[in-house]
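Shipment paperwork, digital attachment
Item: protein structure file
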Amino acid sequence: MSKKEIIQVFLTLKIRIQELTDEQLEQLCLQCQNENSWFTPTNVRLALQGLIHYLSEDNFQKWAESYTETTKIRKIGVVMAGNIPLVGIHDLICVLVSGHILYAKLSSQDSVLMKFIIQLLLEIAPALQERIYTVEQLKNIDAIIATGSDNTARYFEYYFKKYPHIIRKNRTSVAVLHGEETSNQLHQLGTDIFTYFGLGCRNVTKIYVPESYNFNYFFENIEHFQKVFEHHKYVNNYDYNKSIYLIDRITHLDNGFLILAENPSLFSPISVLHYEKYADIAHLNEQLAERAESIQCMVGDRERFPSMIEFGKAQSPHIQDYADGVDTMLFLTNL
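Attachment content:
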């Protein structure tokens, strides 16, 4: 299939998703939640909307056509994560648009939704049966893209060292506050924190605040997100983390569904948000630059920090926003 045909397949996929009935969506959401209880109907629908956003016609077509079509078709193994719904879809799109053959090792935590999308693609274009394979083991491949934790990344780097590869490690996102954010900006920051229960690399797990920051104002404006407490796994994480802070007598703030703890680590457990105070923004920028390899997104007030992502947009990447800042399409087209 030509690149032009593949582009049309994905644009048709977008329409097929938009045409799903409420009953079909409800059934799909139920199946996804049965496989992974973190995949609530809200989160599954959000992931599908994210895919529709990826496939925005003008932007998607310009992005796809901006890369040279490969002249050497390769077998690309992709190890997909399963922390949030459809987290592996961007790699699937890149492999097919670049003209290669996909060998996907799906996560056991996100197989239902990925298989549903793959089945839609095969219904739209049966010829893709020779371009998409789901496998349990990656053998006889020419290159690899793998996403996992820092521990699994070391395994991937050893096991796949002879192949051209992209190996992704743990990343997370941070927000920088100046203390004069509006109520709406803080509410939008809540979206960056709580979407997908904080399980994605684009979720904000740490905030940097001025030394005299008013946390009461922050708590007031994220109150809407207390609905996360309706999920039993989130509650279990909150109860566990709260007990640790209390038993170990660690100073923290708590609004009943989110714990704020002063901690230098970028990574915080579910139901906990780390914070760190800063006195000088230039020095903070230096710190953030030093930790860039662990940061997926930086969120902040665009008027103060033009290079940052606007509040509430961390979980709304465009098709050209690559994980870890590594251009997957360039890697694939240069094989």
